[in-house]
Amino acid sequence: MCSTMNKTEAQEKELVRENTPETPLYLVLTRKEVAEIDAKLEQLFQKQSQYLDQHDSALFTKGKKLRPILLILTAKLNAPDLPQDYIDDKIISIATSIEMIHIASLVHDDIIDRAVERRGAATVNRTQGNGFAMLIGDLQFSEAMNLFVNSLQYQKDLKLLKSFLKTGYNLCLGEIEDYLAKPVLDTKLLRQRYYQNIQNKTAELIEFCCEAGGSLANGTKQQIDLMRNFGRNFGLAFQIIDDILDFIGDEDLLGKPTLGDLTQKRISLPMIYALESLPERNLVRDILEGHATSSDDIIEAARLIIHSNGIHKAYDDACLFKERAISALDNYPKSKYKTALEEMLSLVLDQRV
Ligand code: FPP
Ligand code: MG
Fold first, then answer.
1. What is the pLDDT of residue 6?
2. How far is the CA of 266 from the centre of ligand 2 (A)?
3. Which of 12, 79, 224, 289 lies 20 to 30 Å from 209, alpha-carbon distance?
4. Angle in degrees, CA 73, 326, 199, rounded to 5
5. Which ligand is closest in space to the CA of residue 208?
6. What is the pLDDT of residue 46?
């Protein structure tokens, strides 16, 4: 069911006042929708609650909701005449389904990474073991698909479903290739593979959110293509920053331990750029090849990466993707939704999202 409310001038002013430095515009503009998504997630996790402990459910609902927020903002960007308070149930369901898929993929990712902490809480694999965590991820994946399919209405929604399924496939492909990646000497090849993998494992889902936003707002093909372009570049910048934060982030703010990529021998962009400036045989390569494994080795290799220009070069690449994402919005007139999307990108680059 949809609800429409007239927004008065006073409410509009309130909205501007609410946009304090502590509350970014993107959160102010999507607050009501995010509350609805949270409620829907709570409802769905309630069904799973007999299999989860308290920590697990907290972990699932505590995310930043970056993907749902991007869907909502891109939908509003493409339907600027809709009242601020208009909440579309279909958008809420599809955004919730996307968040659920994201959660399922993190549950599986944590099994693969043997991760013990995510979002400041113990991972499901830690509290319940790998086998059970795998089943929980599967359950959430199925729940997400049910929700998505049940919200489809029109012929054109089938196109969106096809795109969603392709995204899920590519997500798995990215994770498989990331898992299998070997530290070959050719760093240009390593970079190409890295970009392909982050495109699949991260950018695809964000790209899909923006496509869904454009499509659910009845955008034209050109607008939907622009949204995909925006989402792809947003996603690439986002994952590069995530990989940088794995070296220099604050564990309390991240809610997970740092240096996970080196520990798990996952090749990331700061490492690749560091490899380019280090002698052919070096500790970073030794770790990636499994010849060095102690925690002292990992700390020393991280020091080498931080002191090489690896982090800076990776950051420059993230800036490039940010610029490309901003350019995808060029054709859109100035609006608070456009400002909010640009602001989100800046906050990602400032490592504050
Ligand atoms: C986190 O990246 C992981 C992903 C973005 C994708 C994980 C995908 C799968 C496990 C495939 C299974 C998919 C479904 C649909 C169930 P990261 O490891 O770089 O980030 P992190 O440091 O937060 O772990
Ligand atoms: Mg991981």
1. 34
2. 9
3. 12
4. 85
5. 1
6. 85
**321/310 Cα distance (integer angstroms):** 17
Residues with CB under 6 A from ligand 1: 101, 104-105, 108-109, 113, 137, 141, 168, 171-172, 175, 201-202, 242, 260
Res 1: pLDDT: 26
Closest ligand 1 atom to Cα of 109: 10
**Centroid of ligand 1 to alpha carbon of 180 (angstroms):** 14
Please tell me what DSSP assigns to residue 154: S
Looking at domain 25-349, does it have CATH number 2.60.120.260?
Answer: no
Residue 151 near residue 188, CB atoms below 8 Å: no
Alpha-carbon distance values, 201 to 115, 175, 206, 267 (Å): 18, 6, 10, 14
Domain ranges of the chain: 25-349
- Residue nearest to ligand 1 atom 4, measured at CA: 201
Q: Check residue 347 and give its pLDDT.
A: 95
For the chain, residues with pLDDT lower than 70 are 1-21, 55, 58
Distance (Å) of CA 291 to CA 286, 287, 298, 304, 320:
5, 6, 11, 17, 35
Provide the token pair at 293: 């494994």
- The predicted pLDDT at position 10 comes to 37
Helical segments of 49-154, H only: 54-61, 66-78, 89-113, 124-128, 130-150
Instruction: Pick the atom of ligand 1 nearest to 102's CA.
Output: 15
Nearest-CA residue for ligand 1 atom 9 is 105
Closest ligand 1 atom to Cα of 118: 23
